[in-house]
Design brief:
- The complex is a heterodimer of chains A (112) and B (114).
- In chain A, 0% of the residues lie in helices and 56% in strands.
- Chain A is an all-beta fold and 112 residues long.
- In chain A, the strands form two sheets. In chain A, strands 2, 4, 5, 9, 10 and 11 form a six-stranded mixed β-sheet that branches. In chain A, strands 1-3-8-7-6 form a five-stranded antiparallel β-sheet, with no helix packed on it.
- Chain A is globular.
- The model of chain A has no long low-confidence stretch (mean pLDDT 88).
- With 114 residues, chain B is an all-beta fold.
- In chain B, strands 2, 4, 5, 6, 9, 10 and 11 form a seven-stranded mixed β-sheet that branches. Chain B has a four-stranded antiparallel β-sheet with strand order 1-3-8-7, with no helix packed on it.
- In chain B, a hairpin with a 2-residue loop joins strand 5 and strand 6.
- The model of chain B has no long low-confidence stretch (mean pLDDT 92).
- Classes of the chains: A mainly beta (112), B mainly beta (114).
């Protein structure tokens, strides 16, 4: 099966700093990658996605970088705010199927 | 608000019992996915239904079953409950079954088995 792992279980940053959350994967056939944010007591919420034919995609204050050579995905959050405090999951799925495999999650703590 | 509604929000039951979790997908979404989230296992895919039919199966125990009704709402049935079944159960929905698109998650049902 798919293996998705996170480099750090907890990331603490100061408000205003940039945050980088990393994710490694093993299945080179994966072609769709998603980052989800889960706040306490809520379900995962879609942040941004990227397909394997791209290496970078930007959203509002977030950027996802995909390095297929080393099978690495990262989420960059600019000017991190206290409201960004949550658990962040990377998820990926192989072509032809939506069923994503989720990583274990990284807890982002933003200190005011 | 994701548009996906799950009930109940909390459920406490005894070992050996059976419970039913309910999910109403976003309007227009045909696919429903069930996930289990526990502290030690992360978010685990259980099963997917598309337009009333089972489409994909993940790590779902034989004691668990699900169905999707003609109005597209779905129910997850958990029977012969064990302490280890205590977890958050999430439902997600998406418009179709095969395109790699965003799925919208409900708020989850927290099941506690005592």
């Amino acid at each position: 099966g798919e293996s998705v792992g996170l480099h750090l279980p907890t990331l603490s940053v100061q408000e205003g700093d940039n945050s980088i959350i990393n994710c490694a994967y093993s299945n080179s056939a994966s072609d769709y990658f998603i980052w989800y944010k889960q706040e306490s007591g809520k379900g995962p919420q879609f942040i941004i996605d990227i397909r394997s034919n791209m290496d970078k995609r930007q959203g509002q204050r977030v950027t996802v970088l995909l390095n297929k050579t080393v099978k690495h995905l990262s989420l960059q959050i600019a000017a991190t705010q206290p409201g960004d405090s949550a658990v962040y999951f990377c998820a990926l799925s192989p072509g032809g199927s939506y069923i994503p495999t989720f990583g274990r999650g990284t807890s982002l703590i933003v200190h005011p | 608000d994701s548009g996906v509604t799950q009930t109940p929000k909390h459920l406490i039951t005894a070992t050996g019992q059976r419970v039913t979790l309910r999910c109403s997908p976003r309007s227009g979404d045909l696919s429903v996915y069930w996930y289990q989230q526990s502290l030690d296992q992360g978010l685990q895919f259980l099963i997917q239904y598309y337009n009333g039919e089972e489409r994909a199966k993940g790590n779902i125990l034989e004691r668990f079953s699900a169905q999707q009704f003609p109005d597209l709402h779905s129910e997850l049935n958990l029977s012969s409950l064990e302490l280890g079944d205590s977890a958050l159960y999430f439902c997600a929905s998406s418009p179709d079954s095969t395109a790699n698109t965003e799925a919208f998650f409900g708020q989850g049902t927290r099941l506690t088995v005592v």
